[in-house]
UniProtKB/TrEMBL annotation:
Gene3D superfamilies attached to this UniProt entry: P-loop containing nucleotide triphosphate hydrolases (3.40.50.300)
Metal-binding among keywords: no
Entry EC no(s): 2.7.7.7
Name of the protein this chain belongs to: DNA-directed DNA polymerase
GO molecular function, one term: DNA-directed DNA polymerase activity
Superkingdom assignment: Bacteria
Organism for this UniProt entry: Caldicellulosiruptor saccharolyticus (strain ATCC 43494 / DSM 8903 / Tp8T 6331)
Pfam families from the UniProt entry: DNA_pol3_delta2 (PF13177)
GO biological process, one term: DNA-templated DNA replication
Amino acid sequence: MNLDTFVGQKEIVFALKKALKNPFHAYIFEGEKGFGKKLLARVFSKHILCENKSSCGVCKSCRLFEASSHPDFHIIKRQEDKKEISVESIREIIKDLSRGPIFSDKKVFIIEEGEELSISAQNALLKTLEEPPTYALFIITCNNIERLLPTVLSRSIVLSFKRYSASEIAKILEQNGLEPKDYIVKLCKGNPKIALDFYNKEVQNKRDYIFDKLLCYDGASFDLIKEFESDFEKLKNDFEFLFKNIIYFLRDALFYKKTKSIELITNTDKLEKIIEFSNKHTISHIYKLLQDFMILEKYPDANVISDNVLDMIFLKLSGG
């Protein structure tokens, strides 16, 4: 892949193409997780390091890059056993920078999940951003730009990634050898990673499991609430996925209950289940349940699940 074949983010790609001959020393790629920030950072890096600035795939630099052995290209990320990207990691970058490039005219450093940089690491990086060597190029990918210091932001060019259009999502799926499905293009809400994840069998199984549980729900069964308790515990690392699927399902059921039309339904592959659910419950019941889950969606943290949050879920499900 190169800048010409990268799908989406046209304004950003255009800006990066213009910068190939004389790039700024620091870029921040910010936006929602799954928007292709890391991929575009690698694509741009390959262009920068290429002897022809074209990602030719033929020159020595491109061959080294494709073999993941380019000495002038480095990716920095949080270590699995650490909570942050440490100041020591940044000091290693600074040490490496003192030696200059080996094969290219630039040394490129991608810092992934830049919001995970500790404050001391950001301050250490800041010194280099203020007076960078002419051959230094930093690309920081970031899902939460608010966690970066204003001084780091002010010394970088910030490029904000936007949601993808339906046609762009379809093209990305085709590039990955997948047949674009209407309900997936709708459900992913312009996020390519979510769209690609839908083709994962495990994800599909989780979705079916959630929908089947909702179909069993009668609004009063204590035994079912206890089943939900164990299910939520098993899925606590997928709370965002869990709640979004429940909310979209309930919205579809509400639309169908009110209109008896399938035109507004998002989960078009699950029409039978949606119709069955809507036939079992009143409009007011579905609407209340939808409201409850939309409120609950804002509570859980993917990393910290409290008993209070789970108790609230069970209370809402039981009609309390």
